[in-house]
Amino acid sequence: MANTFVLIQTQTVSSAVASVTFSSIPATYTDLKLLMSVRYSGSGDTRVYAQFNSAGYNATSKLLYGFGGGTFGSTGYSAGEIAFATSGSGETANTFGSGDIYIPNYTSSNNKVTNSDGANESNTTANAMGWMCAMWSSSATINSIELKPASGNWVQYTSFSLYGIKKN
Question: What is the pTM of this model?
Answer without folding.
Answer: 0.86
